[in-house]
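Checklist before submission:
- one chain only
- standard amino acids only
- sequence pasted in full

Submission:
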Amino acid sequence: MDVPEARVTDVEYLEINCKSALNRVKGMGFQWSLNPYIGCEHRCAFCYVRAYELRADRPFDDRYGRTVRVKVNVPGVLWSELSRRSWRQELVVIGAATDPYQPAEGKYRLTRQCLHALHAFSNPTGLITRGPMIVRDRDATVTGPLQSKMRVNRESARRRHR
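Returned file contents:
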C-alpha cells in the first residue's frame, strides 16, 4: 500500500483582494469557474492544477500548497458580478482549480458566502471538492434551496484509482 503524502502543517495564508470572482473557462464542459482560494493545502499528487502552476512559473513541487492566497473580498465581488445586466446566469463551478473546502474554509467561510450569493440570484451551480467540510453547508447545497440547481462532485483519490 502506498504511503499517503504527509499533510503540510506550515501553511501560510495570505489575505488578498480579487478584482473578479468569476473566471471564464475553456474546454472543461462549463463556461465559468469560481475559486475563493489560490493554492490548495490538500496537495493532491494527481491534481491537474500542478501542471498549470508549472506553466505559470509558480511552485508545483513540494512547495505547492504551502502558501494559500485567500480572496477575502470574493463574496462581495461575486454579488457585483451576478448583479450585472449582462450576466446570463450560466453554470458556475466552484472549485475547478482549488478545493473550496480545504482547511482555510473553516476559518474564512468564503465558499458558503458564495453559495448564498449564487442562490440569491438563482444561478446554476456546480461544486468540486474532496473536503469533508461540505457537510457543514448541506443546508445551502444538496438539501437546501439550491437543490434543483446544484451539482456536487465529491470524489476521493482512493475511489478514483481503484
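Reviewer check: The helical segments are 49-55, 74-83, 104-108, 110-120, 157-160.
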